[in-house]
Amino acid sequence: MSSTTVPVEVEGALPVGAWIVGGAVRDEILGRDVIDVDVAVTGDPEVAAAALRETVGNSAMFSLSDAFGAWRVVDHDRRWQVDISPLGGATISDDLSHRDLTVNAIAREVGSQELIDPFGGRKDLEAKVLRAVGPAAFSEDPLRVLRLVRIAGELGFEVESATLDMASAASPDISGVSGERQLMEFGRIIGGADPLTGLRLMDAVGALEAVLPELTQLRGIGQSRYHHLDCFDHTLMVLEQVLLLEESPDVLGDAGPDAAALLSGEMGDGLRRWDAVRLGALLHDIAKSSTRVEYSGGRIGFPDHHIVGTEMTADILARLRTSTRLSSAVQAMVKHHMDAGFMTHHEPVSARDIEGYLVSTEPVSVDVTVLSAADRLATRGRRSDEAIPRHIGLCEKLLGAAVVRERQGTPPPLIRGDDLAAALGIPQGPQVGVLLVELAAAQYAGEISTSEEAVAHAQRFLAGQ
């Protein structure tokens, strides 16, 4: 359970003379949940971290920075995490002078409620304004630009104009920050309560160009008459639709709430599966700037943009040093985001069609179906009044099947490949693989239900080739 103050057991285990600083003090003042606790100590941070871990138990510690000597202690139940760093100067006021924002430059000594606020942070909290501590706030560490964006979104605060100018000046240098550190802040922006506002602020100060230049290159890329927005604005609208589907999943039929519950699970990198779908929305058309073709008659197309986009997504997420699981999931969503749309041209879809969709999109069948629905809802050009209901209707069917498949798993085959080869008198090899695929489709469609029926079906299939 979270707390609106630094947990008593944590504060009681910190050394005398240590200071609680930054976001923890800010959130205590605002009455927000305090989860991340920053501590400045005059002694050895490693010793303080080890004492905290030993005293509170049920926690782990690890080094954050060899250069700066910072250590993190994390509660195994994820109720809190504590970052312990050396005091940045001779006094706590010296330390606070090197902080990024005035609202983060407030401190109190461990065991005391008396606030040290040399830069007027409390006044800015009352005014709901984010203001840089000094002119070097962002040049000292360009990642602070992303932190500014993230905090603005989390708190709903305005950014003071001079601070915006300083952030804009420092934004090009974000590209030189390690991918892991970029992901730490960017992931919290994407996974936050209002990622659209965060992305627009990133764009306004030039941080989006530094972190995701491929996305900004979509601006001004016109699309076909079936779209009403350019590629950049369409991408943001797809993200908006993902957020709306998360809020109201029943738009996707009876399976919508069940799908939403599955997507609330963890993906890794501190993100949920919903957040991975948000990333999929940002990247699904990422290759359209490089694949746009204008055909005779003025028709516009983007051949193989899902394939090129999958490769670009792999490169982007490698640059951000995401986990393999997150990268693989988002790549799969980009690759298959048009599959459901293609199926609308062949309705009514059969059970075999649905099984083929599930096989090709696993393990992101639920995720990519939601993304596909959001993509269609954000496409409001020619004949959209007809196309949107048809597409959403298909997504309801696919999502229902995908939820069942994820919860129950793929049904076991009616017969193993070696047994099938023996029954048919054929050698094991690629041909058996083709037959097993056919038998799985027939089984899903309810055409066969026993091993004997599977063998007979395989014989008929071979005879018809």
UniProtKB/TrEMBL annotation:
Q: Respond yes or no to whether keyword Magnesium is given for this record.
A: yes
> HD/PDEase domain: from which residue to which, for each copy?
227-389
Q: Which SUPFAM superfamilies match?
A: Nucleotidyltransferase, Poly A polymerase C-terminal region-like
Q: Name one GO biological process term.
A: tRNA processing
Pfam families documented for this protein: HD (PF01966), PolyA_pol (PF01743), PolyA_pol_RNAbd (PF12627)
Q: Which UniProt keywords apply?
A: Magnesium, Metal-binding, Nucleotide-binding, Nucleotidyltransferase, RNA-binding, Transferase, tRNA processing, tRNA-binding
**What terms describe the molecular function in GO for this protein?**
metal ion binding; nucleotide binding; nucleotidyltransferase activity; tRNA binding
Q: Does the keyword Nucleotidyltransferase apply?
A: yes
| Necessary cofactors | Mg(2+)
Query: So what family is this one in?
Result: Belongs to the tRNA nucleotidyltransferase/poly(A) polymerase family.
Q: Which PANTHER family match?
A: CC-ADDING TRNA NUCLEOTIDYLTRANSFERASE, MULTIFUNCTIONAL CCA PROTEIN
The identity of this protein, by name, is Unannotated protein
The taxonomy runs: unclassified sequences, metagenomes, ecological metagenomes
